[in-house]
Amino acid sequence: MRSSAPFSVSDEQRALRNAVADVLARHSDEAQVRALMATDTGFDPVVWRELAAMGLTGLLIGEEYGGAGAGPVEMGIAMEEMGRALLVSPFLSTAVLVPSLLAEIGDPAECAAVLPRIAAGDLIAAVAFAEDGSARLPTTIATSAAAIGGAWHVTGYKHFVLDGQPANLLYILAGTDAGPAVFAVDAGAAGLDITLLTTVDPTRKQCRLQFVDTPARLVGRLGSGVQVFAAALDRSAVALLSEQAGGARRAVEMATEYAKTRYQFGRAIGSFQAVKHMCADMLLEAESAVSAARFVAGSFATQAPSRIADLALAQAYCSDAFVFVAATNIQVHGGIGFTWSHPAHLYLRRARSDAQLLGSPSWHRERYLQQIGA
Amino acid sequence: MTRVGDDKQSSAIEMRQEQRHLTDDELRDEVRNWLAANWIPGIDRAEWAELVVDAGWAVPSWEPEWYGRGLSDTQSRLVAAEFAAAGAPGTGHDRANLFACTVHDAGTDEQKRRLIPPSISGDSKWCLLYSEPGAGSDLAGLRTRAERDGDEWVINGQKVWTSFAASADYGMLVARTDWDVPKHQGISFFMLPMRQPGIEIRPIHQITGESEFNEIFIEDARVPAENLIGELNSGWSVLQTALAYERRFMGDLARTARDSRRPRAEKAHVLMDLARDAGRLGDPHIRQQIARVDALTTVNRWNTQRSRAAADRGEAATLMALGKVAMSRILHETARVETEIVGAEAMLAGPDNPVGDAVTFRTMNAYFTSIGGGTDQIQRNIIGERVLGLPKEPEPYRDTPFRDLPH
């Protein structure tokens, strides 16, 4: 019984899955995805308010701050569905990364000021930690913060900033004389320049931030910036696994549906073993990704000692699995899969982006090995 | 051996029928008490087997009138667990004894009375005579022939991949009895007595150097007509029954093996130790590959756990169907990475070169899983058709008499 505990599903969790699937069916069909991906912000206030009203933006936020006080397992359920639907939204940044970061920082005043507004759907917030060359935390931080007359100012840049464009509030990792720390910067602050990046995945918006003596507010302790960000990225990666698994499952369905209905040589192409076997291999990868995502969510929910090793291994696996499945889906579709107007490429774009967003598969594999003492 | 009808057996049946609706705890107590009262380590095997069979523990999930206790499959496993804990053999024939299970499901009452008791008491052994040199993945293409001669059938042909042939009393044989109908419709199922002059057993020399299997040459061997199981020419459906038991049992074995495996951190050390010994643990390329293999192994374990926890039978069945392909890949990839780690040593074999020898053994033995019990390619067809619902290949010879098939 103990070994299967990570995979048991409660009635509430089933209801949550159905509710999320239902709202996405209404608000994230292909036409809506394409309309939003053509915008700079990838943000639809109407959909966002509905996600908030359902308690999704506050899923990870404690009840004392107006959230649902749910955990990684519930977030995984929501993210699987969002991955399937390729939801275009600042959800991962605002509802996952920021609450995770604030939970790590543990500053009650900051939590009280920000989290209720996120839970209510009134605030879009983002985190900015990466710099050039890596989507992970930089080893030496180019961005610096200094107190000028008692007020902090940030100078430098941040790269690969998820949902920086629609955000009202940004949490920045910057170095100080007393070590790295987290600073809050308002979107309209003086000396802040936001440049939209052209991303391979148009359903997920990224930007580059440039700071010149930009007014900032210290959040948490000086010197703790790297630790709290690293832990927040781990919590968020758990959610990303589920998005990958959900997207992978959808890609298998697309390929299978097409293989049943596309006729060549007088037969459905899925009757050819060359195609059938591709679909079988896709299913193995997608279902394994689902198992991995759900196991790791359970592993974090119970604070299992092996959770970082589990996460690192799963993050590498789910990234590769989603890319493989999304890519093979294009191949199964043949010519139509090579067209922009077919959605198959959108899943590959998301998969390739997800596979770098919180570190590459090889980075996670090396991390896994170090976790197990190799 | 046959006791149905005598007083002792009748009273045993009545007793067992009264006990049909025990809770798990009550059953566990009963098994423990019975074992405590009867099991003596070192007891004569035949004497013990008779006790177990008479008490209905040999096949607990079968009907009381057929040597069982009418328990559920789950409770039968509970009995097996109690026997295992005591170190006592003799139960679990309702899952592991493919011969008895097949006779139980497809045999006549006379066959059940005659064939089952010696089998579940361990007096008679069995082997499988299914595959042929010309009938592997396409088993229904078998060409071993059975021809009627009075009260007997005369068998001629060749079977392969038979384990335990030398010790078997019966071969579970599928043979062609009608050549003028499509291939599935002309097959019959027999329990062939193995100890007779027309049967020659030759070990197969495997690519690993081992010999776990035999090929069986059958020349004018005889099987009594009363050993035909099921209707004449209905052997394919009897075979499906037997194969279903086999798959279920193999699944049980695979799960048990996974359960007993060491946890991941320890297991990774096999590859890690090999890399460390070869001075390659610092090689980033090797490190990446070790982590990849660990991921394959670990996600497969998570799949198994999910299939066990699944409330939805479809989800469990999906994951079970994927398990074989996953395991093949794990074994081949593990061996491939081991090969890369040991490098030139992989050219050497034999007791003087244990490192290379072991790596090559695992490389070769991986095919045991990716070919045995149906190739990975057949398994992918099954996944595609039964799980994903993709259409089957067209069968141009579906209605062609077997005699007219190209071969």
Write the layout of secondary structure elements.
The complex is a heterodimer of chains A (374) and B (407).
Chain A: H1 11-27, H2 30-37, H3 45-53, H4 72-85, H5 91-105, H6 108-120, E1 125-128, E2 144-148, E3 151-162, E4 169-174, E5 181-186, E6 192-196, E7 206-219, H7 225-261, E8 263-264, E9 267-268, H8 273-301, H9 307-333, H10 344-357, H11 361-371
Parallel strand pairs in A: 1-4
Antiparallel strand pairs in A: 2-3, 3-7, 4-5, 5-7, 6-7, 8-9
Helix pairs in contact in A: 1-4, 4-7, 4-8, 5-6, 5-7, 7-8, 7-9, 7-10, 8-9, 9-10, 9-11
Chain B: H1 7-18, H2 24-38, H3 45-55, H4 73-86, H5 93-96, H6 98-106, H7 109-120, E1 126-129, E2 145-149, E3 152-162, E4 170-176, E5 187-193, E6 199-203, E7 214-224, E8 228-229, H8 235-260, H9 264-277, H10 284-309, H11 313-342, H12 354-371, H13 376-387
Parallel strand pairs in B: 1-4
Antiparallel strand pairs in B: 2-3, 3-7, 4-5, 5-8, 6-7
Helix pairs in contact in B: 2-4, 6-7, 6-8, 9-10, 10-11, 11-12, 11-13
Fill in the CATH topology of the largest domain in chain B: Butyryl-CoA Dehydrogenase, subunit A, domain 3
Calculate the mean pLDDT score of chain B and round it.
91
- Cα-atom Rg of chain A, whole angstroms? 21 Å
How many discrete domains of chain A? 3
CATH architecture of the largest domain in chain A: Up-down Bundle
Beta-strand share of residues of chain B: 5-15%
Distance between the termini of chain A: 31 Å
Poorly predicted parts of chain A: none
SSE succession of chain A: HHHHHHEEEEEEEHEEHHHH
CATH superfamily of the largest domain in chain B: Butyryl-CoA Dehydrogenase, subunit A, domain 3
How many separate domains of chain B? 3
Strand order of the largest sheet of chain B: 1-4-5-8
Derived from helix and strand composition plus strand pairing, the structural class of chain A reads: alpha+beta
Which architecture of the largest domain in chain B does the CATH hierarchy give at level 2?
A: Up-down Bundle
Mean pLDDT of chain A: 96
Helices and strands of chain B: which structural class? Answer: alpha+beta
Taking Cα atoms only, what radius of gyration of chain B do you get, to the nearest Å?
24 Å
For the biggest sheet of chain B, the summary is: 4 strands, mixed
